[in-house]
Amino acid sequence: NNPEKLAMRFAKFYLWMESLVWPFSWWFMKLTASVNKGEEKKVMTEEELFYLVEDIGSAGNIENEEKILIEAAMKFDDVPISEIMVPREDIVYVNANDSIDKIPEFFADTGFSRILVCDGPLDNVSGIVYVKEYYLLKQKQKSFSIKNIVRPVEMLPESMMISVAFDKMQKNRNHLSVVMSDDGKVIGLITIEDMT
User: Fold this and answer.
1) What is the pTM of this model?
2) Tell me: the pLDDT tens digits for 45-65?
3) 3-state SS, one letter per residue, for the chain
């Protein structure tokens, strides 16, 4: 039930699926060519690929959880992040100039492990604060500000596809990214957990 572990498996099987599919695609084209001689060669459609994954899963060649992850990767391949993001009106954030004492209160109230930090209004994003880093620093020094523990946050365009965003966030080890509109305004948030 660990989301980060699940995300790692998701990425692993997404890449694995790419290498798995080509032999079947090649076989399918050969079969089609032999049945429909003289017709243009066909490639495996997404629907046929879904059926193939179902067959492989039914045969017991992959675990059910792995099958679900593969199907999710295929489903999200052509969906923009704006479809699954947390919308602007639901974003909860703290002001970089607020008292550091608000941080533990926020974590306790929301249950989040990360907080978006803005310098005043939402469109002035400063970065994010991780609960773990807050408590580690709290053990070492009593007096510090929110600005001392803010980490950079990645900005992604609303049109970016989920599969691309997932790969990018995984590669950069980002668990949370801000979704931006074409005119540079914050329109949402997306997390690795949203994509699994």
Assistant:
1) 0.62
2) 556 666 666 766 676 666 666
3) CCHHHHHHHHHHHHHHHHHHHHHHHHHHHHHHHHHCCCCCCCCCCHHHHHHHHHHHHHCCCCCHHHHHHHHHHHHHHHCEHHHCCEEHHHCCEEECCCCCCHHHHHHHHHCCCEEEEECCCCCCEEEEEEHHHHHHHHHHCCCCCHHHCCECCEEEECCCEHHHHHHHHHHCCCCEEEEECCCCCEEEEEEHHHHC
